[in-house]
Amino acid sequence: MVTQWDSKYETNISEIDSQHKKLFRLINNIETVYDENKEHLSTKSKILVDAVSELEDYTLSHFLIEERVMELNQYPELEAHKKQHDRFTDKILELKNRLTTGNLLSNDEELNQFFGDLLKFLRAWLTNHILKEDMDYKPYIKFNI
Questions:
Q1: Which end of the chain has fewer beta carbons closer than 10 Å to its terminal beta carbon, N or C?
Q2: Residue 109 maps to which CATH number?
Q3: pLDDT in tens, 41-82
Q4: Which segments does the entry list as coiled coil (predicted)?
């Protein structure tokens, strides 16, 4: 189930919306590799690790920009929002470490379970975070970076 961008996710902040769209694409790229290779994911381990790394890196830069926009606009819930970003970042780092240490990359059954769980987590977090938390700061934004 590829998560599609929809206008309901728009914050009307062009840079943020553009970045959110890219996050959807990065997750969908992981999902495509997963869906097309479920029976032999270990043969795609480098592609999958690189895709998770790219998602992690892009998410970090996105969070910094989003937090800067909130800071410039004196969003009163900035610290709480940053904590949510930190929890997500910690979770992604934990999952990436789990993926790259041990024997997970050579076990198709465990990889299948790992990526199924990862994708469910990413889809739920991204859509819920945008629809709830990011929409909460939307009325406060008077100017962009």
A1: N
A2: 1.20.120.50
A3: 999 999 999 999 999 999 999 999 999 999 999 999 999 999
A4: none
C-alpha–C-alpha distance, residues 21 and 19, integer Å: 5
Kindly report whether the global pTM for this prediction surpasses the value 0.70.
yes
What is the four-CA torsion angle of 62, 65, 69, 75, rounded to 10 degrees? 60
Tell me whether residue 19 is in a domain: yes
What is the CA 85 to chain-centroid distance, rounded?
10
Domain total of the chain: 1
Rounded Cα distance between 105 and 111, Å, is 6
Token output for 11: 């914050």
Residues in the chain: 145
DSSP letters spanning 51-94: HHHHHHHHHHHHHHHHHHHHHHTT-TTHHHHHHHHHHHHHHHHH
Q: Tally the C-alpha atoms within 13 A of residue 20's C-alpha that lie toward its C-beta.
A: 26
Helix, strand, coil distribution of the chain in percent, nearest 5? 85, 0, 15
Extract the tokens encoding 102.
């041990």
Does the residue 39 lie in any domain? no
Domain region containing 93:
13-33+44-140
